[in-house]
Design brief:
- With 80 residues, the protein is mainly alpha-helical.
- The protein folds into two domains: 40 residues; 33 residues, no CATH class.
- The chain has four helices and two strands; from the N terminus they run αααββα.
- The chain has a two-stranded antiparallel sheet.
- α1 crosses α2.
- The two termini are 41 Å apart.
Length: 80
């Protein structure tokens, strides 16, 4: 697909250098950069850590149902 975009000079120069180093076209280098940045990868998904605020010093917090994903999500959202 063809499109027109405005790219900062520094970003364009970096992309041109990478394209030349890899022996690929500028368009391919831009596509690779975009996909590497915005595509969800399994590695990124696995590396995310969550803190589940479901227990206190005395055990499970009141109102938390460990059998309900929606309930856990509600508790997590309240802590943000």
């Amino acid at each position: 697909m063809r499109t027109t975009v405005t790219i900062q000079d520094e970003a364009l120069a970096l992309c041109k250098d990478k394209a030349q180093q890899k022996g690929i076209s500028l368009g391919e280098a831009i596509t690779e950069a975009i996909l590497a940045t915005y595509r969800d990868s399994p590695e990124k998904a696995r590396s995310r850590r969550f803190t589940l605020p479901v227990s206190g010093k005395r055990g499970l917090r009141s109102g938390v149902d460990l059998d309900s994903n929606a309930g856990l999500e509600d508790v997590m959202e309240q802590r943000r």
